[in-house]
Every structure is written in structure tokens, then in C-alpha cells.
Amino acid sequence: MPGLWSAKRGQGESAPSQLGCLTQSLTVFVEGVEAHYRKAKVAGANIVEELHETPYGEFQYGVEDFDGHHWLFARHARDVNPEDWGAKLADG
User: Count of CB atoms within 10 A of residue 80's CB?
Assistant: First the structure.
């Protein structure tokens, strides 16, 4: 796994851990998500969502970094019709 890095915050900028709420969630697709999960767990990552298959066909797990940002690591598991998991088109 690559090393960790952080950037200095500018004036008026706060991390989710300082705000007390989730500000974003980023999904990173990796081929070997199962091995990635095991490696992260052994390394002491803060796992906030265990490895599982979602209703919309992704196999994923979630972690929270030191600043409280939420990361999902996933791979495509299967094709699912959006109507089968409750997706609806917005009017507009």
C-alpha cells in the first residue's frame, strides 16, 4: 500500500473529524478488493463498513482515514437492473 500523506489546511477549512459530520465519500475500484481488505485490516485501518456485496452489485468495504474522510474500496460483482434495487429516474 502506498504511504500516507496529508496537506496543510487553509484558513477556514476543517476536516470531517473537526466538523463532526461526513463531508464526502470516495469510491476507489480495485481488482483484488478481498486482499486489499485483509491487508487494510491487518494494518489497523479503521474499518467502518465490513466487506459485503451491495444490492446494486458492488463488492466493497469502507474505511475512515485519520481526518474522518470516508473511503470505499470496491470491485464490480454483478450486473443488476437498477429497478431491482429501487432506483428511480428523477423528473426533470
Answer: 15
Report angle CA 80, 25, 73 to the nearest 5 degrees. 60
Q: How many whole angstroms separate alpha carbon 54 and alpha carbon 92?
A: 28
- How many C-beta atoms lie closer than 10 Å to residue 37's C-beta? 20
Average pLDDT score over residue span 22-26: 71
Q: Which residues of 40-79 are buried (b: 16+ CB within 10 A; e: fewer)?
A: beeeebeeeeebeeeeeebbbbbbbbeebbbbbbbeeeee
pLDDT digits (tens, 9 = 90+) for 41-73: 999 999 999 999 999 999 999 999 887 888 999
